[in-house]
Design brief:
three-stranded antiparallel beta sheet; 3 strands
C-alpha cells in the first residue's frame, strides 16, 4: 500500500493551478496538518486547550491587552473570545478587570497560576520545536521563515478581500502591516 504522502501532489492538482504552486501548497498543507496534530498532542499532555495556550502566550507578551485586542490577535469573534476568557477566568489563569480610564474597556491579565502555566507550556513547546528545527541549516531556517512570513502576508491580504475577488484570481501581495491597517 502506498504511503499517503506519496500522493500529496495529486491531491492539490487543481484546474488552473500550475504544478509547482500545487506542490508548494501540498507541502504547506501537509506541514500545517502535522504541526497541528503535534501541537494538539503536546497540549493534551499539558491538559491545555490549544486556544487557551495561544491566549496565555499572547497575554504573556501583551500584558493588560483589551478583550477586543485578544480576540483580534487570536482571529476569533467577540463571543468566542468572551467564552474562552470566562473559562480561563474560572480556572484561575486570567483576570479580567475594567480599564482604569474607560470603564467600557475590559483588560485581561495573567494571574500567577496563568503565568506559571504559560512558562511551563513555553518550555515544553520550545523543546519540541527545537527538536524539529535545530537540525536544519541556519540559512534554510532563515529562508523558510522569510517565505512563510511572505505567505502569511499574502493570506492576511486575501482575508481582507471579498470572496468573489478571491475566486476571480490572484490579487497583488500586501504586507502584514498593510493588511493590519
Amino acid at each position: 500500500m502506498p504511503h499517503p504522502h506519496d500522493d500529496r501532489d495529486r491531491l492539490f492538482a487543481l484546474d488552473g493551478l500550475d504544478a509547482r504552486s500545487a506542490a508548494v501548497f501540498g507541502a504547506f498543507m501537509l506541514a500545517q496538518r502535522l504541526h497541528h496534530q503535534l501541537m494538539l498532542r503536546v497540549l493534551a499532555e499539558q491538559e491545555t486547550p490549544p486556544g487557551q495556550a495561544i491566549c496565555l502566550r499572547i497575554l504573556a507578551v501583551h500584558e493588560g491587552a483589551t478583550q477586543r485586542e485578544v480576540g483580534d490577535m487570536l482571529h476569533v469573534s467577540a463571543p468566542t473570545v468572551t467564552a474562552m476568557l470566562k473559562r480561563m477566568e474560572r480556572s484561575g489563569t486570567i483576570a479580567r478587570e475594567p480599564d482604569g480610564t474607560d470603564q467600557r474597556v475590559t483588560r485581561v491579565r495573567l494571574t500567577p497560576i496563568g503565568r506559571e502555566l504559560e512558562r511551563c507550556l513555553s518550555t515544553v513547546l520550545a523543546t519540541r520545536i527545537g527538536r524539529l528545527l535545530d537540525t536544519m541549516r541556519e540559512a534554510d531556517r532563515r529562508d523558510l521563515a522569510r517565505l512563510l512570513r511572505d505567505l502569511a502576508d499574502r493570506m492576511s491580504g486575501a482575508m481582507d478581500e471579498p470572496a468573489a475577488a478571491t475566486a476571480a484570481g490572484p490579487a497583488p501581495a500586501r504586507t502584514h502591516a498593510e493588511a493590519s491597517r
